[in-house]
Amino acid sequence: MGGAYNLKLLAALSALVLLLAASRPFLPGLLEAALRAPVLPRDLLPLLPWPVAQPLLRRLALRGAADLLPSFVGVAREPDDGGARAAEWKGACFYDNRAWMEFHNGTDGGLGGGTLHLETNKAHSWTCIDLYVFATPYRVTWDYYFVGREHTLDFKEWESEAEYEYVKRKGVSIFLMPSGTIGTLRALWDVFPLFTNTQWGENSNLAFLKKHMGATFEERPKPWVSELNVDDIHSGDFLVLSKIRGRWGGFETLEKWVTGAYAGHTAVCLRDSEGKLWVGESGHENEQGEDIIAILPWEEWWDFEVKKDDSNPQIALLPLHPDLRAKFNETAAWEYAKSMDGKPYGYHNMIFSWIDTISDNYPPPLDAHVVASVMTMWNKLQPEYAANMWKEALNKRLGTKLSAL
């Protein structure tokens, strides 16, 4: 029996030696894991069944939608003789991180590729994970890290010489999802229903505005649609709309959050020489599905908003003060409205109406790095939408003809 026991012990020791030899690259991380803090319950929530995790997610004191926004932590560059240092930062899980780039020569005249090295250390618990987004102006990718060690992210080949030169000069931008796995899941739960055209979506939009802006929409007594006397509406009177469900409702909710506005859409009333009432607005969808500037008869505009607009718009009519109405130049207003009728929606002003400096006017937690990264991602996912949202705006301001970001 003693011989059999010794044989088993020898086999176990041999297996342990082989295991340690095979796991040498991972050994520091495994040793570090033993020294981590105890398991944090919030780190385990993603592993629980959804019916169990959902109520717990709701009770966590997180920032909500802001957790979906990556936080810029540094740039991975190639070390050189000039003393370029590796980027260093504190993560959500690993408190000690550093990153640098390594370039690889191409074959057959190719540009080659590169490897981003990211070293993670000092995790705060056994179960936490850090999520990262890596971006250049030409690509976006992501990865997550659980073990404390040196990790690598391979760029097999640069997409173009422009990307190669960019990374050589400026490196690869690194963004941390600051709330980790649980925060990102919680943020998705906070944002997803905003865009659903349901009562759940409407309630979610109202709750989001109350939570993040302190804005409340008090339910008015019925009838919810006011009986307006059209004869009481004059040129220059202002229409303010707030949509709270569906695609436009979700978009306007986020727009209110980042701008601080309490309305997502506006229009103006105009009377012609015969006394007929019209509404001028930007963003009307024509028969081709294009968003344009349009002048619509009041009856057509009002009928659509009351009976056909499924975003459940809240509409306020704001008359001009009598003193201002007396100064309102109706002729000039009509001339301008007619000159703009049928032109594309003003995408080139949409973002830059509230981001009007290079780096000082972003609502927290946004910054210039995050905005540039989001532009890159969106340009890859929805190039036509990106062309509307910022290419036109950048071309207008830079006097250029950008075809890609």
Automatic annotation (TrEMBL):
Q: Where is the signal peptide?
A: 1-22
* Keywords noted in UniProt: Signal
Report whether Signal shows up as a keyword of the record: yes
Report the protein name in the record.
Uncharacterized protein
The source organism is: Oryza sativa subsp. indica
